[in-house]
Amino acid sequence: MKARHHVAIVALMLVIRLMPTHAHHSLSVEFDTDKTVTLTGTITEMKWSNPHGWLYIDVKDAQGDIQKWAVEFASPNQLYRRGWRREDLPVNASVVVNGYRSRDNSARISATDVKLPDGRTLFAGNNEKQ
Amino acid sequence: MSCGSVVRVMLLAAIVAGGWRSVVIAQQASGAAIPSLPTRPDSVCPDDNPIAVRACGRERANTFTPPKTPDGKPDFSGFWGGSQVAHENLEAHVRTPDDNGGPSVIVDPPDGKVPIQPWAEVKRLENRARYIDQNAQCFQSGVPRHLYMGTYQFLQTPAYLVQLSEETNAVRIIALDGRPHVGKDIVLWQGDSRGHFEGNTLVVETTNQNGMPRLDQQGHFYTDAATVTERFTMFDPNTILYEATIDDPLVYTRPFTIAIGLHRNTRQGYELWEESCYEGESNATHLLNLGYRNYPGFSAKDAQIAKEAYERSRTR
């Protein structure tokens, strides 16, 4: 049953990549789409807020120190319609996040996708591609 | 109150009372399938070229009988969706990590270019480089931009066509009863819209916008003196030919017209949800820290001054 659920999610993700949707504003104004970032970290909080959800993660740097990162997601309505659920992002779970670095070089990225502990990869971004 | 209305009221109440988790609970309690992504049926006309959509849509409309309201008017009720392409850029643009890309949505003039005056092009570039797009701050998108993107619902009565957008939960009310526009002193984010039917086409004239919204993410703008004339023509059961003519003589060398298809969302049980956009809005703060400014809007008076200053600078 769980496997079927995962297949459905993957199928959904394939479908939505073929569909246009909207972002409220231009992503590249705030985030540098030439600077892609991959973060592996532990969830400390997920805010299902408008107009963007925010995932907060602790990331260990090369020296073993913890860096706190904020990850911008699409809106809760968009995430929910794509198949995201509250229980997908529990505190202390380990995730791998891809996204674009903020132009002010603070520890913020705009996410494109997130790999969850169970192996699923979900699209988290603001701009889906046709 | 219908079952659907009860569910929506429960949903809103749940959101107010308990936030996101309650949304899930309220919808599961309704017993209905959870509405998901929009379902967009195929159109009888090609959808990838605005000029072709306009030509085909007009031809098809000649022989198509749209659904009618009890008083015999074309019935536009339902869930509809627009085009991200126009929101990104009215003109043709390529696909990037930021944009879906696509052809120009401008069908007149035929070259697909915005007929912007030279001084206004300078202002457009300044808008893009220095000012925060009002969308980032959760303000309403104005007419016609609010119909480019997202999902919205049309509710129609003999006296009104009400357009409800999920984006910022904006509401636009178009009066159909022949009343005159409000006075010149009133300016509004969504303007003042008056509609009438010409055959099966709903023609809507919008004035009294406040000069704050822009037409796309590229900084194309209009003033509070602009008139936007929209034409809604259904040409198959699930597609509306949407045409909008922007007339702002201080900014543009001539009126210009965009055309896109609005597609009916036929997903069973679909509903608009609350998008309380302001609750966690932080993009504007980040953009201000990057040096952007809040857009103060641009009135016809501002446009006249800027135009004269530009022309003086060119003759020196």
Could you name the CATH homologous superfamily of chain A?
Nucleic acid-binding proteins
Broad CATH class of chain A:
Mainly Beta
Helix share of residues of chain B? 25-40%
Task: Outline the low-pLDDT stretches of chain B.
Answer: 1-32
Number of helices of chain A: 3
User: Into how many domains do the coordinates of chain B divide?
Assistant: 2
Counted beta strands of chain B: 12
Along the chain, the helix and strand elements of chain A come as: HHEEEHEEE
> What can be said about the biggest beta sheet of chain A?
5 strands, mixed, barrel
Write down how many β-strands of chain A occur, each being a DSSP E stretch of 2 or more residues.
6
- The 3D shape of chain A can be described as globular
H-E string of chain B: HHHEHEHEEEEEEEEEHEH
The structural class of chain A is alpha+beta
Q: If strands are numbered along the chain, what order do they take across the biggest sheet of chain A? A: 1-2-3-5-4
Task: Write a structural description.
- The complex is a heterodimer of chains A (130) and B (316).
- Chain A has 3 helices and 6 strands; from the N terminus they run ααβββαβββ.
- With 130 residues, chain A is of the alpha+beta class.
- Chain A has a single domain, classed as Nucleic acid-binding proteins (OB fold (Dihydrolipoamide Acetyltransferase, E2P), Beta Barrel).
- With 316 residues, chain B is an alpha+beta fold.
- In chain B, α1 runs antiparallel to α2.
- The N terminus of chain B is likely disordered.
- Chains A and B meet through α1, α2 and α3 of A and α2, α4 and α6 of B.
